[in-house]
Write a structure and sequence with these properties.
- The complex is a heterodimer.
- Chain A has helices at residues 22-39, 56-70, 83-91, and strands spanning 5-8, 11-15, 19-20, 43-47, 53-54, 76-79, 99-100.
- By secondary structure, chain A is α/β, with parallel strands linked by helices.
- In chain A, β6 (76-79), α3 (83-91) and β7 form a beta-alpha-beta unit.
- In chain A, α1 (22-39) packs parallel to α2.
- Helices cover 29% and strands 24% of the residues of chain B.
- Chain B has helices spanning 23-35, 42-63, 105-109, 125-132, and strands at residues 10-18, 79-87, 90-97, 135-140, 146-153.
- In chain B, α1 packs antiparallel against α2.
- The chains are: A alpha/beta, B alpha+beta.
- The interface between A and B is medium-sized, with 21 and 25 residues.
Chain lengths: 102, 164
């Protein structure tokens, strides 16, 4: 049981690690998908409070989950994003499809 | 007496490491430490780390198809070569692999284009390198590996209050 993943009502909360790169992203995507399928959650919240580094692998995690849940009308949120994370998300235009909060 | 970064005129380093994903963070931290004497801003360090991470990740997962290589796996001699050079206030980073190469470089560099969508790759690697560095050059041929050359001028972002 990984306490970085938590289901609250219809939301899967994912606490992102300090560094989000390809090495970490494989596990995060896989585990998030298990929760989405098994618990049938509708929405996903990525919490970036601890995150100090993210490359395009983080974008891949978000887009991949978005594709899965948006099909059923679910929403993706990115919370506790610092300026750097917001900039990275916005370069990819993700602010148009997910909710980004400070 | 000049301050910090002006005293280093030229500095160079080379690294070779196994093409496994755990080395992505090693590579970007190594480059960040290498440029530290130039007194880069937090923003500049962040830009460099992201670009290095993108290039090294590409070498590992695309150059060598190394997704399933684990740290404890002993076989395989796939290596990623990192060459950094500082000249005055310009950092040059070269990331080289001897993997499968790129068939269509122009297409590979298009934002959102990826050959591995099933692996959740966003197709933004080269776009990030372009966005975060000043100059990007990709040299590759199928079967002959890939060289990614990036340059960034440091100290461009002025210190707060410097203009007064």
């Amino acid at each position: 049981m990984d306490d970085n993943f938590k289901v609250i009502e219809n939301y899967l909360m994912v606490r992102m690690p300090e560094e989000v790169d390809h090495h970490k992203s494989v596990y995060i995507s896989k585990t998030a998908d298990e929760y989405i399928m098994q618990e049938g959650v509708g929405n996903v919240v990525f919490d970036f409070e601890k995150t100090r580094f993210m490359d395009s692998s983080g974008i891949g995690i978000i887009i991949g989950r978005y594709k899965k849940i948006s099909y059923f009308g679910g929403k993706v949120f990115a919370i506790n994003t610092d300026m750097r994370i917001r900039r990275t998300l916005m370069i990819c235009g993700l602010h148009k499809v997910i909710e980004i909060m400070e | 007496m000049q301050t910090g970064h002006k005293t280093i005129v030229k500095n160079e380093m080379e690294l070779a490491f196994d093409a496994i994903s755990v080395n992505e963070s090693f590579a970007r931290v190594a480059v960040a430490a290498f440029v530290a004497p130039l007194n880069p801003t937090m923003e500049e360090i962040s830009d460099i780390k992201t670009a290095v991470s993108e290039a090294v990740t590409n070498a590992i997962i695309h150059g060598y198809d190394g997704e399933f290589l684990q740290e404890n796996q002993t076989e395989g001699t796939d290596r990623v070569y990192l060459h950094c050079r500082i000249e005055e206030d310009v950092l040059q980073v070269e990331v080289r692999d001897t993997g499968k190469g790129i068939e269509d470089i122009e297409q590979a560099m298009e934002p959102l284009f990826t050959t591995k969508p099933e692996m959740d790759r966003s197709g933004m690697g080269f776009a990030f390198m372009e966005a975060f560095m000043d100059d990007l050059e990709v040299i590759s041929e199928p079967g002959c590996g890939t060289v990614v050359l990036m340059k960034k001028k440091l100290g461009v972002t002025p210190w707060i209050g410097e203009e007064e």
